[in-house]
Design goal:
With about 325 residues, the protein is of the alpha/beta class. It has two domains: about 160 residues, Rossmann fold, CATH 3.40.50.1980; about 130 residues, Nitrogenase molybdenum iron protein domain (Rossmann fold, 3-Layer(aba) Sandwich), CATH 3.40.50.1980. The chain contains 13 helices and 13 strands. A three-stranded parallel β-sheet has the order 3-6-7, with helices on both faces. Strands 8-12-13 form a three-stranded parallel β-sheet, covered by helices on one side. β1 and β2 form a beta hairpin. The chain is globular. It starts with a helix and ends in a 12-residue tail after the last helix.
C-alpha cells in the first residue's frame, strides 16, 4: 500500500513540476546592447570575449569555442582554470586573432554566443553574430571592461540555466575574501594601484577597473584622483614629471616596472626606496590579475595577499618576489 501511494504521489509531483521546469527556457537576458531571448538551454556555447571560458567552466559548462587573450595557454585556459576545464571535459577551438572571425564562429554552429568581456565589439560585428545565434554581451550599466565579476557570472548563469551554481560560487568567494581580509588587517585604508610602464608613461586605471576592484575587496584604497583624471575607457597615463601620483603604499606591476627601475625620478620615490613596488614578473599570477574571473580570484586569494603585506611593510629588505 505504501509503495502504491508513493508512486501516486510521485506522479502528482511530476505533473506539477513539469510546467515549472519548462519555464526555465526560453529566457530573456538584459545586457549592454539590449535584450536577447534564448529559446532553449544552450548546448554549444562559443565565447568571443576573452575570459568567459573561466566563468563557463566554473558553472559546469564546456564551451566549444573560446578567444585567446595572451600567454598562449593550451585551450586559452590559464593554469588556475585547467582543473575546471578538465572536469567539464572541455577541449574548445581557440580563436587566435584579437578581431572576431565571423566565419570561425559560424563554423562552430553555436546556439549561444557570449561576449560579456570584449569591449571592442563593434556594431557591425554584433549584428553579424546575431545572425548566427543569440548573443549576450556585458552586464548593463557599467563602463567598458568594468562590470563586476559577480554581475557577469549571474548574467552568464541566467543565459545557461545555471543560476543556482552561480550563487554558490559567489557565496564561496565572498567567504574566502572576507577570511583573507580578516587575516590582513594592515590592508585597511592603505593606498594601492596597479599598472604598466610603457612609452615613457605609467598607465593605470580608475577604481572601476576589475583588478582595482580586487584590491579594494581586500581593504585597499584606490586614490580618488585616479577616478578624477581617468579618460573614457577608464585609464590614465602618468608622465615621469607627475610620478607623485603613484607614490602610494604599494603599487602592483603585473610585468614589473620594466625600463623604469633605473630612472632617477622613480628611484627617488618611496616605492623604490622602501621596497613598496610589487612586481609580479609576468606569468600566471600576472595573467590571473588581468582575468579577474572566479577561478582566477581563487588563485589570487591564495597567492597575492602575503606579497602585498610584504610590500606594505616599508622594509626594502623584505622579499616581495612572485612565486615561481
Amino acid at each position: 500500500m505504501l509503495s502504491s501511494r508513493a508512486a501516486a504521489l510521485a506522479l502528482v509531483l511530476a505533473h506539477f513540476a513539469a510546467p515549472s521546469l519548462a519555464q526555465d527556457f526560453p529566457v530573456t537576458i538584459q545586457h549592454e546592447r539590449g535584450e536577447t531571448i534564448i529559446p532553449a538551454k544552450p548546448e554549444r556555447v562559443v565565447s568571443v570575449g576573452v575570459h568567459e571560458q573561466d566563468f563557463l567552466y566554473a558553472l559546469g559548462i564546456a564551451p566549444v569555442g573560446v578567444h585567446e587573450w595572451f600567454d598562449g595557454y593550451p585551450y586559452a585556459t590559464g593554469p588556475w582554470a585547467e582543473a575546471a576545464r578538465v572536469a567539464v571535459g572541455a577541449e574548445p577551438q581557440v580563436l587566435l586573432s584579437w578581431e572576431i572571425n565571423i566565419e570561425w564562429v559560424a563554423a562552430l554552429k553555436p546556439d549561444l554566443i557570449v561576449a560579456t568581456y570584449f569591449g571592442d565589439l563593434d556594431d557591425a560585428t554584433y549584428a553579424l553574430l546575431q545572425q548566427i545565434a543569440p548573443v549576450v554581451t556585458a552586464p548593463p550599466g557599467y563602463p567598458t571592461w568594468g562590470a563586476p565579476w559577480q554581475d557577469e557570472l549571474r548574467l552568464l548563469a541566467k543565459a545557461t540555466g545555471t543560476s543556482a551554481r552561480a550563487e554558490e560560487i559567489i557565496a564561496d568567494l565572498d567567504a574566502k575574501t572576507a577570511s583573507v581580509r580578516a587575516a590582513y588587517p594592515q590592508f585597511e585604508g592603505r593606498t594601492a594601484a596597479t599598472g604598466y610602464f610603457d612609452a615613457g608613461v605609467v598607465r593605470t586605471y580608475n577604481s572601476a577597473d576589475t583588478a582595482h576592484r580586487f584590491l579594494q575587496s581586500l581593504g585597499l584604497v584606490i586614490p580618488a584622483v585616479y577616478d578624477e583624471q581617468a579618460v573614457d575607457r577608464g585609464h590614465l597615463d602618468i608622465s615621469l614629471e607627475n610620478l607623485q601620483l603613484i607614490e602610494l603604499d604599494t603599487f602592483v606591476w603585473p610585468e614589473g616596472p620594466l625600463g623604469l627601475e633605473t630612472n632617477s625620478v622613480y628611484q627617488a620615490t618611496r616605492l623604490a626606496r622602501d621596497g613598496r613596488s610589487l612586481s609580479l614578473g609576468g606569468g600566471a599570477l600576472s595573467a590571473a590579475l588581468s582575468f579577474q574571473t572566479p577561478l582566477a580570484l581563487e588563485y589570487l586569494l591564495d597567492t597575492l595577499p602575503p606579497m602585498i603585506a610584504a610590500a606594505l611593510d616599508g622594509d626594502p629588505a623584505t622579499n616581495v618576489a612572485a612565486p615561481q
